[in-house]
Amino acid sequence: MGKKRAAIVGLSEWTPKRVWDEPMFSLEAHARLAAEVLEDAGVEKGEVDGLVVSAVYESPLFGPSAAAEYLGVKTNFAEIVDLGGATACGMIWRAAAAIEVGACETCLVLCPSVTPPLPDGDGPRKMDFPIYLGGDAWGSPQGQFEIPEGLVAATPSFAMVAQRYMARYGLREETLAKIAVEERDNAQRNPQAIFHGKPITIDDVMASRRVCDPLKLLEIVMPCFGGAAVLVTTPERAGRTRHRPVYVSGFGEHCTHKSITYAPDLLDNPIRVAADRAFRMAGAERSAVDMASMYDCFTITVLVTIENAGFCGKGEGESFVSERSLRWDGDWPLNTHGGQLGMGQAGTAGGMGHATEAVRQLMGRAGERQLGRADLAYVNGTGGMMAEQVALVLEGA
Hints:
The protein is α+β, with helices and mostly antiparallel strands and 397 residues long. The chain has 13 helices and 13 strands. The chain has one domain (7-116, 221-396): Peroxisomal Thiolase, Chain A, domain 1. The strands form three sheets. A nine-stranded mixed sheet has the order 4-3-5-9-1-10-13-12-11, with helices on both faces. Strands 2-6 form a two-stranded antiparallel ribbon. Strands 7-8 form a two-stranded antiparallel sheet. It is globular, with a radius of gyration of 20 Å.
């Protein structure tokens, strides 16, 4: 993969909702996102010859072909990605790589996160969050040995990472609270954010209910519904679209485990390898980054990612966060849309939100939170229990 071989030229993102009040099947959601992102880019459907999806609930098998059939597109490249919170970033680099090698020329990358209407009616449904995250299947090591002992889903796993970091480096809980506060501040500039109009203070975070020591309620994402998409195409076609093209200049992906029990090192996670590869491929220095858009399912995820992505040394995450403003108008803008902590975690669309925000900023379309300078962005996705990791370096034309 080389610099400026594939460009993001359009985006679509729905306002997250706690209760989905627009009953639609997954295929319908894919179609709506596809129409919106094509309209945003000014590209005709007939130009599409690539498709990447995360899940098609009406077709557990053959998802890409089911989506292509429903959308009425003929694809030369069709892919489905399953990397948890790293899915969206993984989808984007696969689309970009497919374009570079000539497998396709214009690729839809679609991430709806809605649940279909109930069979006995079309009323709204609340979030049906997968508590076990696939770990309870017959024969699963997690189902046999971990879930019965209480190691269930993400919160206790990330709490273990936080406990280890505190034990090794003396991290103060107030530093993690600062991350939640400043991301929530960014959400006040984003009308789409689920916590728009609801700022918080460090005292609020510290006083919120302790869910799994040391993580508190206001340090944890809120699951919700939504959808997001981007359109990736060749540099030649990008020049004919409506917005400043955003090039996928570098990417990296690394996966070492599924369960936190099998993580080689709780504090040296796979993002280190992924980020090193992405920056090396892009030929960019970390000091040149104008904004970071980091997966933030929990506050500890952000701090550990800052370190492992190479923006500071090991054990220096606390001083890095304490000495900088992470606000959109601060000296180190992070998750300028509010992140998932401020905007809400709409499944894979929540992870895609980190990419769409970077694209907005680099295109100059971020409205009242627009950065004064936005030419180079670092984006990452964290899947599973600090397991699957994908890093992207995005660059404005």
